[in-house]
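User: I'm writing a tutorial on reading structure tokens. Could you give me a worked example: one chain, its sequence, then its tokens, then a sentence or two explaining what the tokens reveal?
Assistant: Sure. Here is the example chain.
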Amino acid sequence: MAANKNLKSDQTEADPKDTKKKHKKTAKQDRKIKQLEDTIERQQLELAEMNDKYLRIAAEIENFKKRKERESLIIIENAIRNLLLEVLPVIDDLERSLNTATKDKSYKSLKHGVELIHKKLLTALEKQGLSPIEAVDHPFDPELHEALMQVEREDKDQNIVVEEVLKGYRFGDKVIRHSKVVVNK
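And here are its predicted structure tokens:
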């Protein structure tokens, strides 16, 4: 029995040391766990903050795209509106000319009226940036002209446009329709 008692007292004496070591290990582990939990919590907050910033920026980009789209449509609509406002008086003149032609029966006055309307329409389109391409008596330029045929004329130099079948036009610096021309050989 004394041996049993010694065993128990050895175990109890060993237990407090082991318990202190275990307690120290557990306290260290608890501190480490607490640090890791704090780190995780901080990183989760940072992640939530970054996610919120990302969503705000994505929304701003989408709003910017929509705003630019609306602005572009407004610019296009205004340009078309301005062009139509320039052309409407020409339509009015054509209508007046047609009404006068049926009453007057004078083809000379009709021709004069149509010439005025033509001039007014060209002026309106020139205000919008349209300009005719000069072709006759100019050297043939494939950037500006489209040759429909060649003829041989003694009074003109070689490769000179002698006739314009269909007038070409530029819009700003860009050719929107090439002049269809006849070129001297």
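What the tokens reveal: The chain has two helices and six strands. The CA atoms of residues 41 and 73 lie 48 Å apart.
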